[in-house]
Design the sequence.
């Protein structure tokens, strides 16, 4: 049974588009269902809409023995930036939260809060990039919600996604599992997303070639886990950057971590921007940045697997887990000194994702 | 990045450390051990911690982190005054980001922003002037902070506002000057500092001559230093060599940037816009004569202290706080009774715990924290 998609009229979103009536159905159909597919799971766009997505348990059972479930909200400013937009971020961010648990991401939800007055074309662009990011990552956006708030009650557009996936049998990643002697790996350049957003805001009148590293990491994670099945834990280095992730691991595992500045990959442009603004690249967000703790015996295989993947070409082993004071992260500086790398206090950059 | 790399060369750093070790052995026994050297400038403090320089030095040398972080020495009363201005109808209060978390007596700018005041972070005083042009119906006030380094940009912004006839822009001036403060430290009866790393950015503006008093009257060597790690190590080596040779002179390690006479155009702008205040209060150090500037009467229209009713709040430093002793080098940050317990970067009591250039925040974040039980 199929139906024709409704079309939305007018150029901008009004409060009527959030009212639950005909205008809202027009908007949802024309913008979201058209891009995401209908019928609760990538069905034909004209499939009937229910109040929930109905997902086959077999899809999960075929891929794993546990469900992973996560949610994230996105308020990035600006909405569009080099390397992505709020839509790609909302898809990749939630996929990555599933991926670093060792899960195969399968289904996403998408809830939007729209400020009255936003152009419908802008929504269409965001929906289109969400659909294309989801397609590329082989996940489906199967349910959603649309709210419109009066002008000034939010800033243009906020997106919330939730994601559900299946964890492969035998995979047991845990932030508490790092042990002295393990190696700490990253998949490449750190802090690109944070630096790109900062440059894109235009307050600094800087021209840079920086782009967000926003990317779905589950393919890379699968390759890593195949090569290094003993991997202890994975995290994506988003808000708070590498420094925050390492502190979380050191704290949860009650271990020390020692990293080497000279082996820590930061692009010259990102480093330069940080120098200029007094920021520390260790605290800058990436959106395609993976941190892995692997047993020493699997470190070489893990590094080779990361480097063989397009998202891991610049992967590096940056340090190791130590039996130093529990919870303390120490960096050997490129100059030969040592310093503590602590948790970030307050906020280095607001509205980065 | 070439420009920066040569000043971060690990081989060069190692060889300087060896030279420092060698020269330190020659320092006569009449100089008390450990030998305390103060870096005056917060920018140096930040670099020292960030690159882990302290741990590379021989144990006979100890660095003392001085008062050169403008945010750290801002007294609570001035934060309260800033909030009083920001609370007036129609005001947009523009500030550098690092002032946001400095505690006033009741709240910080960050808390006041959350409470609804229109407080905005800018990267330059010119951004604040641009805000004033964009919002002619509002009053834009720029929170001017800093030593001689940041005086010229504020001054040029005020002059630009006058030239363009921007009538809704003013400056809450908290600029301070470093030499009287150095003298206040040198006058301290408990002085135990053997020498000083001089502030490279301030010296870029004022030159090296104003520091002569340190050598002449107080008999202490001072080396004006740049901010890259190799700069700092080289300046320490120059200081140690002076001590070993029994000299007390003003030397300039940062000659690639600092001219002996300073920057004439910047000094002219400073002279045109500011005049010395009789007294200015510093957090932890009390009132120091002729250590702050205000905007000259002929530019009164751009002076927020004249445009708005400012309460001139006098607030004593918190009792638990030993910022003064830390600022003068009498105590290390970790020896303050509040360090790491009542006073942390999340809940700072003293401003030294707020700014990344503050000695306490830097020690807490990068350096020797309270011992962790392993």
Sequence:
């Amino acid at each position: 049974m199929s139906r024709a998609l409704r079309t939305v009229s007018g150029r901008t979103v009004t409060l009527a588009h959030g009212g639950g009536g005909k205008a809202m159905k027009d908007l949802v159909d024309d913008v979201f269902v058209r891009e995401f597919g209908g019928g609760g799971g990538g069905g034909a766009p004209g499939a009937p809409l229910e109040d929930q997505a109905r997902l086959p348990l077999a899809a999960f059972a075929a891929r794993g023995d546990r469900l992973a479930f996560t949610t994230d909200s996105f308020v990035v400013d600006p909405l569009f930036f080099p390397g992505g937009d709020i839509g790609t971020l909302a898809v990749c961010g939630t996929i990555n939260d599933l991926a670093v648990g060792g899960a195969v991401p399968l289904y996403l939800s998408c809830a939007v809060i729209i400020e009255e007055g936003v152009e419908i074309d802008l929504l269409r662009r965001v929906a289109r990039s969400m659909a294309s990011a989801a397609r590329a990552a082989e996940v489906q956006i199967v349910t959603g919600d649309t709210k419109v708030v009066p002008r000034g009650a939010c800033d243009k557009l906020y997106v919330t996604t939730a994601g559900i996936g299946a964890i492969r049998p035998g995979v047991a990643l845990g932030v508490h599992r790092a042990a002295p002697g393990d190696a700490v790996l990253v998949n490449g350049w750190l802090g690109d997303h944070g630096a790109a957003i900062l440059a894109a805001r235009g307050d600094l009148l800087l021209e840079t070639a920086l782009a967000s590293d926003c990317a779905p990491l589950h393919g890379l994670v699968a390759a890593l886990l195949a090569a290094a099945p003993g991997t202890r834990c994975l995290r994506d280095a988003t808000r708070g950057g590498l420094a925050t992730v390492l502190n979380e691991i050191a704290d949860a595992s009650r271990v020390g971590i020692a990293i080497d500045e000279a082996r820590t990959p930061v692009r010259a442009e990102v480093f330069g921007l940080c120098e200029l603004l007094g920021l520390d690249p260790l605290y800058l967000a990436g959106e395609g940045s993976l941190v892995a703790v692997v047993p020493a015996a699997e470190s070489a295989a893990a590094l080779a697997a990361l480097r063989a993947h397009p998202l891991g070409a610049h992967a590096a082993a940056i340090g190791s887990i130590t039996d130093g004071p529990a919870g303390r992260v120490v960096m050997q500086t490129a100059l030969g000194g040592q310093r503590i790398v602590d948790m970030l206090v307050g906020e280095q950059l607001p509205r980065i994702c | 990045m070439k420009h920066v790399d040569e000043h971060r060369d690990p081989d060069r750093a190692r060889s300087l450390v060896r030279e420092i070790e060698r020269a330190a052995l020659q320092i006569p026994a009449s100089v008390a051990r450990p030998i305390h050297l103060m870096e005056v400038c917060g920018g140096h403090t930040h670099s020292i911690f960030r690159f882990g320089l302290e741990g590379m030095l021989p144990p006979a040398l100890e660095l003392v982190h001085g008062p050169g972080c403008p945010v750290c020495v801002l007294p609570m009363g001035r934060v309260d005054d800033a909030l009083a201005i920001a609370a007036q109808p129609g005001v947009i209060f523009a500030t550098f980001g690092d002032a946001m978390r400095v505690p006033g007596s009741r709240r910080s700018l960050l808390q006041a922003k959350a409470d609804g005041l229109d407080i905005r972070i800018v990267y330059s005083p010119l951004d604040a002037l641009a805000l004033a042009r964009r919002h002619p119906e509002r009053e834009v006030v720029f929170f001017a902070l800093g030593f001689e380094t940041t005086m010229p940009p504020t001054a040029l912004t005020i002059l630009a506002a006058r030239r363009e006839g921007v009538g809704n822009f003013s400056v809450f001036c908290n600029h301070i000057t470093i030499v009287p403060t150095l003298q206040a430290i040198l006058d301290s009866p408990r002085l135990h500092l053997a020498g000083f790393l001089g502030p490279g950015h301030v010296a870029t503006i004022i030159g090296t001559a104003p520091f002569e008093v340190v050598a002449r009257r107080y008999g202490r060597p001072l080396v004006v230093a740049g901010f890259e790690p190799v700069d700092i190590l080289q300046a320490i080596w120059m200081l140690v060599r002076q001590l070993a040779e029994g000299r007390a002179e003003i030397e300039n390690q940062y000659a690639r940037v600092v001219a002996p006479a300073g920057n004439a155009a910047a000094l002219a702008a400073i002279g045109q816009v500011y005049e010395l205040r009789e007294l200015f209060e510093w957090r932890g150090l009390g009132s120091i004569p002729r250590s702050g500037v205000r905007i000259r009467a002929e530019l009164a229209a751009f002076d927020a202290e004249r445009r708005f009713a400012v309460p001139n709040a006098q607030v004593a430093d918190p009792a638990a706080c030993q910022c003064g002793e830390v600022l003068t080098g009498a105590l290390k940050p970790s020896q303050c009774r509040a360090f790491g317990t009542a006073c942390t970067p999340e809940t700072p009591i003293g401003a030294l715990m707020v700014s990344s250039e503050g000695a306490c925040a830097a020690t807490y974040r990068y350096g020797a924290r309270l011992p962790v039980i392993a």
